[in-house]
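Morning - flavin-adenine dinucleotide inputs below, output right after.
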Amino acid sequence: MKEEYKIKLVSKEVLSPTCAVLTFYCPEIAETAVPGQFVNLSCHFFLKRPFGIMCVDKNEKTFSVGVRQVGKGTEQILEAQEGDTFTVLGPLGNGFPFDDVKKLLLVGGGTGIFPIYFAAEYAREKNIPCHVVNGYRCKNDAFLYDRFSCVCGQFDVTTDAGDLGVHGNVMAYLSSVPDEELTDTTVMVVGPGIMMRKVSEWAKAKGLTCYVSLEQRMACGIGACLVCVCKIKAEQEGKEFVHKRCCKDGPVFLAEEVIW
Ligand SMILES: Cc1cc2nc3c(=O)[nH]c(=O)nc-3n(C[C@H](O)[C@H](O)[C@H](O)COP(=O)(O)OP(=O)(O)OC[C@H]3O[C@@H](n4cnc5c(N)ncnc54)[C@H](O)[C@@H]3O)c2cc1C
Ligand code: FES
């Protein structure tokens, strides 16, 4: 059973009227979290809400999450002020596997850019060459732009509006990457389902290993309620697929095993 911690909000960086980076003091999570893991954060409603970890600071003993308002829970979380207390479960989930990664292509979209940032920082720490491609709606939505520019060797963006980077979605950029640049590359993607599916089809066609982080709706976050199940191919078990819990068995899965 994961421990629940009482934590304090130590800083709030407002990115837009509906989005902010929240940083909490929590030595246990700062010390142990790896990219791709998430936390389940309390709000005024019964169920905690899941957020991918955006970064940790082991010296300050903090972790941060980027939160976008979509409903009542995120609205209330974003109203919090420095000094307010929350309860949190975490770090939860499996995280991205970095052991055999020689070269990394990270692809982010929507609130997926927050956990992607953690992966980019981690790659820098491990001296893994890293190229990030983020898809944004428009220039005003290009959160963490400066930070990504500093943290990875190559940073490219696409915007639906066409007012920053390549016009279109991330596929508009990826489909122009020459095959020579992709040798030995592992792909990790976090974003809307349709984006992860398209990127994983592209990666498969290029013969690249690709991991996706599935952001299913969740309740308990610890594998007990089965709200978050997804279908994962299971040929080796003699079945077409098995159900896996995104919160406990994931949220990171090998893209080619996911039944979308
Ligand atoms: C592993 C994981 C990591 C996540 N990381 C982040 C993150 O870094 N930053 C961030 O802002 N959000 C993240 N989310 C999504 C976040 O958890 C939801 O937006 C939040 O729980 C919604 O709570 P609410 O009470 O505001 O909205 P609700 O009132 O519960 O729902 C409002 C609307 O949002 C939709 N919604 C709720 N949860 C999800 C979900 N998981 N996926 C898609 N749509 C959803 C509902 O269908 C509904 O349309 C993550 C989700 C998961 C599962
Ligand atoms: S959220 Fe309860 S099993 Fe995953």
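Note: The CA atoms of residues 40 and 111 lie 15 Å apart.

O.
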